[in-house]
Amino acid sequence: MTGKQKKQALVFWTFRMMALIVVGLLAWILVFIFIKGAGVISWEFLTTAPTEGMTEGGIFPAIVGTLCLVVGSMVIAFPIGVMSGIYINEYAANNLFVKFIRIMTNNLASIPSIVFGLFGMALFVNTLGFGDSIIAGSFTLGLLVLPIVIRTTEESLKAIPNSFRNGSRALGATKLQTINKVVLPMAVPNILTGLIISIGRVSGETAPILFTVAAYFLPKLPSSIFDQVMALPYHLYVLSTSGTDIEAARPMAYGTALVLIIIVLIINILASTIRNVFNKKVK
Fold this sequence. Notes:
- This protein has helices at residues 3-37, 43-47, 60-91, 96-109, 113-127, 134-158, 162-170, 175-204, 207-212, 232-241, 246-282, and strands at residues 50-51, 56-57.
- It has a domain at 62-230: MetI-like fold.
- The mean pLDDT is 85.
- The radius of gyration is 23 Å and the shape is globular.
- It is mostly helical.
- Helix 10 (232-241) runs antiparallel to helix 11.
- The protein has 11 helices and 2 strands.
- A hairpin with a 4-residue loop joins strand 1 (50-51) and strand 2.
- It has a two-stranded antiparallel ribbon.
């Protein structure tokens, strides 16, 4: 084996070890949460409201609240983000204005989530008068993940060769028809990746919903988008830090964490399945 081959083998094994370490840490976390929380999971835990200072009962209102916020934020962020990505990549000229938009989008993605929470409280809760509500929390979380959707959409569209666009235009299709019938269907699988990442982030955020929607203890289901809700991330935080009996609530905290992981996993599997279906159509 030559010196170059030895260096290459060393680099490959280093990468393999790093990958194994990452996978091992992830498996360790998942196994730990499963062992601690599996004993709490039951039909009653999943379908009833919390009682006895949240040390008894279930987490059903928190599950419903989390799903409401995930759906609401995606309804807001996904259409706006996808259309913005289409405009930047397909319509806008590569000038200083577009470069400025890209820089600001990247900066927006790096802002701490608690800042979004404060902004959401100032704008949606107080100024617009939504109060602590699902709609205020959904708008705040939608803004939080909007940069992810925009950048993912833009990069997905960039990956489509220009030859497809040129061929479509040469056959007489308009720019809009080319985007709608040729470019977007090919980019959908990668765009859905941005959706998956956004859902994962939204479902686990605590700071933004703390200021805009989350209730400490609200053992009932919402009746409108202007109601407060319990949410799994904030419920987990309360059980772990400020419950009436932290030690008694700790098993419920692990169970809540396990349910949150399972919900995110199920949503990701569904989104990945849809992405694979579009991949097959493209091929």
